[in-house]
């Protein structure tokens, strides 16, 4: 959880990405994960979990009281979720660009939601929206030993500036 203040700086962040139950049901796991891998992001943790109501309520606590909150909790607990941790340059804002707008009917073509979804209540994927939320969400969904630290041979081809 560092902050990448200026676009174009070289700071590396971690984020939490979850493929929601509709992504699993629709068989889109490979397609969505592929987009993060092809971008050059570094996978640190991955697990298939049936989240409890309590976990989802904590994850979405900022939305408590919103009209869509109950539906959102029901949706997120309706089946297994693929939870993941990724690292990369400016990954928090960059992964949200890959996802597209929250409402898939407004998401740009080329984005995950723009290409693959139509409904805000079935928008396939979650990505943390700030460094503080990324660390909070990683801590909610993962034990420390489930997040790996490994070095990739391709690193210099993806990350070096010159
Ligand atoms: P985000 O997932 O793009 O960060 P948030 O505003 O944090 O968007 O909303 C969290 C999730 O709540 C959304 O991804 C979506 O699943 C759901 N949601 C948000 N707004 C609505 C709504 O108006 N109707 C139904 N579901 C919504």
TrEMBL record:
EC code(s) of this entry: 2.7.4.6
Organism: Oikopleura dioica
Record carries keyword Transferase: yes
Obligatory cofactor(s): Mg(2+)
The protein's name: Nucleoside diphosphate kinase
NCBIfam families linked to this entry: PRK00668.1
PANTHER family on file: NUCLEOSIDE DIPHOSPHATE KINASE
Active-site positions on this chain: 126
Residue intervals of the Nucleoside diphosphate kinase-like domain: 12-149
Reactions catalysed: a 2'-deoxyribonucleoside 5'-diphosphate + ATP = a 2'-deoxyribonucleoside 5'-triphosphate + ADP
UniProt xrefs under Pfam families: NDK
Keywords annotated in UniProt: ATP-binding, Kinase, Nucleotide-binding, Signal, Transferase
Binding sites annotated in the UniProt record for ATP: 20, 68, 96, 102, 113, 123
SMART domains xref list: NDK
Family: Belongs to the NDK family.
């Amino acid at each position: 959880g560092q902050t990448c203040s200026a676009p174009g700086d070289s700071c590396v962040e971690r984020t939490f990405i979850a493929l929601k139950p509709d992504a699993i049901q629709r068989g889109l796991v490979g397609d969505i994960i592929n987009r993060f891998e092809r971008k050059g992001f570094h996978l640190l943790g991955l697990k298939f979990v049936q989240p409890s109501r309590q976990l989802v309520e904590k994850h979405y606590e900022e939305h408590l009281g919103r009209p869509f909150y109950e539906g959102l909790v029901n949706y997120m607990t309706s089946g297994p979720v693929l939870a993941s941790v990724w690292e990369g340059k400016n990954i928090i804002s960059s992964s949200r660009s890959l996802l597209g707008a929250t409402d898939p009917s407004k998401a740009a073509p080329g984005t995950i939601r723009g290409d693959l979804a139509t409904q805000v209540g079935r928008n396939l994927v979650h990505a943390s929206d700030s460094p503080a939320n990324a660390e909070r969400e990683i801590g909610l969904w993962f034990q420390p030993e489930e997040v790996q630290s490994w070095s990739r041979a391709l690193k210099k081809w993806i990350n070096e500036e010159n």
